[in-house]
Amino acid sequence: MARLRLRFLLIPVVVLAAILSGLAAASGDGVQVQSLAQPRVSIVGAPQVVFDWSREACLTGNYPDQPARAFRDFRGDIQLLLSHFVNYRLIGSSMNGLRPDCHPVMSSPEDPRPSSFADREWIASVFTRDGRIIWALVHDEYQGNRHPGRCPSGSYYRCWYNAVTLARSRDGGRTYEPARRGSRGLVATPSFRYRPDLGQRGIFAPSNVVRGRDGAYYALVRVRDLTGREGVCAMRTSRISSPGAWRAWDGEGFDLRFHDPYRTPDRPRLPCELIEPEAVATMTESLTYSRALHRYLLVGLALPGPSSVGSKVRGLYYSTSADLVHWAPRTLIAPAVTNHSHRCGGPSAIAYPSVIDPRSDSRTFATSGKRPFLYYTLLHYDHCRLTANRDLMRVRLEVDR
User: Fold this and answer.
1) Higher-confidence residue: 216 or 34?
2) CA of 91: how far to CAs of 83, 103, 128, 132, 398, in Å?
3) Portion of the chain with pLDDT greater than 70, in percent
4) What residues contact residue 215 under an 8 Å CB cut-off, 6+ apart?
5) Strand positions, DSSP E, 52-159
6) Residue ranges of the domains in the chain?
């Protein structure tokens, strides 16, 4: 029998902001200012610890470094991925009984060639029909600072080149392997080759894979081109097993194909059209189809914008869409401290929000209802420096039309 692992922090909701290190209580700014025509997404209850790094980490780097993704496998167990460049999982019979598995499900090749798109790899989202064969979109970082002669500044952030690749598990999620044949496993690649010391460039952080009304599979990705222009692009495929079958939104349809920049002419711009930049900013962390709203629900961390709804603060926001291309202005759920806004001595920051509903009718929890959970990573600091001590937390959300 799986043991009940969740620890409840028995704290009144009115001080939830302090416990969540930046997330406001459900009665705080952002909810009350919405018009009656808008849906409401609010935090209710107290946060719970899902994975306590200080007690349960298999090794130092075993911490949640991507939004939590989960699926039901063919045995009926639930697996929740703890993604880092060495990827682990929690597994159990229910969301309340997940336990760490200290056998990595996927490690990183750490290939020093940027053209290989095989340096450090995070499992970012999963899709499966049967719980035995699992397809995974992979956040693939080339870290030039780690390879001699590839990064004059020696800075991780200045020599970060990113793409999205495909991996597959044939054994129900116990192990994953890159799908590198044919198209070399490339799903979404920048249209330009690696250049050192430009900063973060490329295609990053795939959302959940969701089913569209047309039966195709969709995902959102964050993009940044050579000039530093950034935002979110939508992509879709009808063949989840074929990495080269994904097409990006071009402003009118999904007709833009991703090309390997090391096999085609180098181009400065990314091969996609940004979707609703003022509405969604760079949010891709959590994408589900909300049964409560009858719309797609996007949740992520963002700065306020000219069209954002709620207090003009950095925080946790949501947006909704009927077609995955046109999105409502993002609305504040709660203020939040992120690693970029963390101040020494202040509340710990959060990262990687992800909506998971244990009652979802989707094997990969790609749908959500009225009372899903918000999972997120809680970051801990020592003498003002970010540490590997990062816990996976969750708190209840309430979604109303």
Assistant:
1) 216
2) 14, 12, 16, 15, 26
3) 90
4) 238
5) 69-72, 78-82, 87-92, 99-106, 120-128, 134-143
6) 1-66+284-401, 108-275
